[in-house]
Write a structure and sequence with these properties.
The complex is a heterodimer of chains A (266) and B (310).
Chain A lengths: L4 H12 L2 H24 L6 H34 L1 H6 L5 H35 L4 H8 L5 H30 L2 H22 L36 H25 L5
Chain B lengths: L10 E10 L2 E11 L4 E5 L6 H8 L7 E6 L2 E2 L4 H5 L2 E4 L11 H9 L7 H10 L15 H13 L5 E5 L7 H18 L2 E6 L2 H7 L2 E6 L2 E7 L11 E7 L2 H8 L5 E4 L2 E6 L1 H13 L4 E6 L4 H9 L6
Parallel strand pairs in B: 3-8, 3-9, 6-7, 7-8
Antiparallel strand pairs in B: 1-2, 1-4, 4-5, 9-10, 11-13, 11-14, 12-13
Classes of the chains: A mainly alpha (266), B alpha/beta (310).
Bound molecules: adenosine-5'-triphosphate and magnesium ion (MG).
Chain lengths: 266, 310
């Protein structure tokens, strides 16, 4: 068979030819600029670039996740809603590969946003607040690591959580075949999930430990491998990763199974 | 390609059956589509045309039976079978936020060997050259239909499936499409499978028509075209001043049937002239001669009982 990458290119074309995508990338850019400039104006010189980068990343990575979830939830369902799925599936490609091309382009979109956020928060804050040396960085992050390296690890952990939640949205997109429902439900789970899980985690049941939303924020392990956040005592990075891996496999299996089996009656 | 060696019907539907829930929507449909023909698929609303087409292109699973395209089963060798198919299923839905050209580019990347010249060629062919770089959301229904045809023929399929392709086309567009489909069948040897309930339309376009009702195939019949008309027998009305005398006169050679204002005969083309001469020689006045062939529409309504949607 010929080039699978052409399928990914098609998906990218459909993604980046939409105004929506550019509004999302524009919003990330504008918010970084806005937050940094406001901080520059109100602060009296005691703010360093690392703490700004860290705060902005914490807030705006949530936005990156939301944007990617919206695009994922619309990815398959949107083709069903508009009926374009029919012309897409009558090509000499298996449904699995078409689905894979969509999934890859979504992860690439998440990566593009994360890279944009990383570069912007570093460059903008350095220009506004100057380059804080290693002592400043050490104070901010409480770690001896190179600050850019530390941020990279932070992004990596965040990205793992993002992959899981995006895969869940992608699954909902395939199951419901309606963009509105898939987007709504995904956002609800993304925003409400951690709240509900937080409440449940106060209960003393064994199964509570296996709730997905308790494990999505892996950055809580950055101080050391023991959890410091809401996951509660006794949780380790290894345990969280195992739980996430199981969810991931289930999401992927269901998505591909359903997409391959479904009659297309759009 | 391996296709050159394959001979036999391009497409075979074998006992194609679809059951959804407890309803049998398509019931053991068996049909061979020969090469180089425009094959009509006629049926009232809800008779199962679109469902059949969905199964032929692998969008719906078959409950039973199989569809073989150029020797490949759509069930077990989907990619090989679909490679030779171009289709529009129901409405030609395209990506509205892309231009017409970007839509074609999108589909062209999914089948090997489609050059940019080929894309330009089909754009020209469907008459969209001046609008191809506009977003599809600005297109009229007919323009979308044309773009749909373009994506279906772009990879030179050997089976072209069109579900109600004239929907939304203006008379000139319908005529162009009709001529083009006949040309595709005759010159390029493509099998064209067209569904429609525009019956008169099918008569002009198709070599053969399969009629389906409530998911069952009820008839397959050939349709004559101009060239073959001479030899065929048709029902001809002679308008004359004295019908009774005309009947008596012709009784021995050509039995006729009395009709309003005249007599009808089942005869071929040459006999029409002969009867006319005899009537005139006998001193009758012939006011008019009309061929009364039942249109497919009449036959169709007769067959399906002109009934409502089931
Ligand atoms: N997904 C589905 N679930 C249940 N029934 C269905 C489904 N799709 C179609 N049907 C039923 O199958 C029958 C055939 O529908 P189909 O769309 O194939 O008809 P059609 O011949 O294309 O009609 P039309 O001329 O209106 O386009 C209809 O009675 C319809 O209600
Ligand atoms: Mg239909």
């Amino acid at each position: 068979m010929f080039d699978f990458l052409l399928l990914v290119r098609n998906e990218n074309m459909k993604l980046y030819r939409r105004v929506r995508t550019w509004i999302m990338l524009g919003m990330i850019t504008l918010l970084v600029l806005a937050i940094s400039i406001i901080a520059k104006i109100v602060s009296d010189g005691d703010v360093d670039n690392w703490s700004m980068m860290s705060i902005e990343t914490m807030v705006l990575f949530q936005l990156v996740t939301i944007f990617t979830v919206v695009v994922s939830a619309d990815s398959v369902a949107g083709e069903f809603s508009t009926g374009t799925i029919k012309l897409l599936l009558i090509r000499p490609w298996s449904r699995s590969k078409i689905l894979l091309s969509k999934y890859i382009s979504l992860l690439m979109f998440a990566l593009v946003q994360a890279a944009l956020l990383y570069v912007l928060t570093f460059v903008v804050n350095m220009l506004l607040f100057g380059y804080g040396g290693s002592i400043v960085a050490q104070e901010t992050f409480n770690s001896n690591m190179n600050p850019l390296g530390y941020m990279l690890v932070y992004y990596f952990y965040q990205f793992l959580g993002l992959i899981i939640i995006v895969t869940m949205a992608f699954m909902l997109s395939t199951v419901f075949r309606s963009s509105g429902l898939a987007i709504g439900l995904s956002i609800f789970l993304l925003l409400g999930g951690s709240t509900i899980a937080g409440m449940l985690s106060m209960l003393d049941y064994a199964w509570v430990d296996y709730i997905l939303f308790l494990h999505l924020n892996l950055t809580q392990y950055m101080g050391g491998s023991e959890s410091s956040g809401m996951t509660g005592e006794g949780m380790t990075l290894g345990f969280s990763l195992s739980v996430l891996a199981v969810y991931y496999v289930v999401f992927i299996a269901l998505t591909w199974l359903i997409f391959n089996k479904r009659d297309v009656a759009a | 390609m391996e296709l050159q060696t394959y001979s036999g019907p391009i497409v075979q539907l074998k006992n194609v059956t679809k059951v959804i829930g407890k309803r049998t929507i398509i019931d053991q449909l068996t049909l061979d589509l020969p090469e180089a023909e425009v094959f009509g698929f006629l049926g009232p609303n809800g008779s199962g045309k679109t469902t059949t087409i969905r199964m032929m292109v692998g969008l719906m699973a078959l409950t039973n039976g199989d569809v073989i395209i150029r020797g490949h089963s759509i069930r077990t060798e989907f990619e090989k079978a679909i490679r030779h198919v171009g289709a529009i299923v129901e409405n030609p839905e395209m990506y509205k936020y892309l231009t017409g050209y970007q839509n074609l580019l999108h589909y062209s990347r999914m089948v090997p060997g489609i050059t940019s010249q080929r894309i330009d060629e089909v754009v020209e062919l469907v008459g969209l050259t001046s609008r191809i770089n506009d977003k599809v959301k600005t297109y009229s229904l007919g323009m979308r239909q044309r773009l749909g045809v373009a994506q279906a023929i772009m990879h030179k399929p050997s089976l072209l499936i069109l579900d109600e392709p004239t929907n939304g086309l203006d008379p000139a567009g319908i005529r162009e499409l009709r001529d083009y489909l006949r040309k595709l069948a005759k010159e390029d040897g493509i099998t064209v499978f067209v569904s429609s309930h525009l019956l008169s339309e099918m008569e002009l376009m198709c070599d053969r028509v399969a009629i389906i009702q409530s998911g069952k195939l009820i008839d397959v019949r050939s349709i004559r075209h101009e060239g073959e008309a001479a030899a065929a027998v048709s029902n001809v009305l002679f308008e004359v001043d004295k019908p009774d005398e005309a009947l008596r006169l012709m009784a021995s050679s050509y039995p006729g049937v009395p009709a309003q204002n005249g007599v009808t005969f089942m005869v071929d083309r040459d006999t029409i002239a002969a009867i006319n001469t005899e009537l005139v020689n006998a001193g009758l006045k012939v006011y008019g001669i009309r061929i009364l062939n039942k249109s497919l529409e009449d036959q169709f309504l007769e067959m399906t009982g002109g009934e409502n949607i089931v």
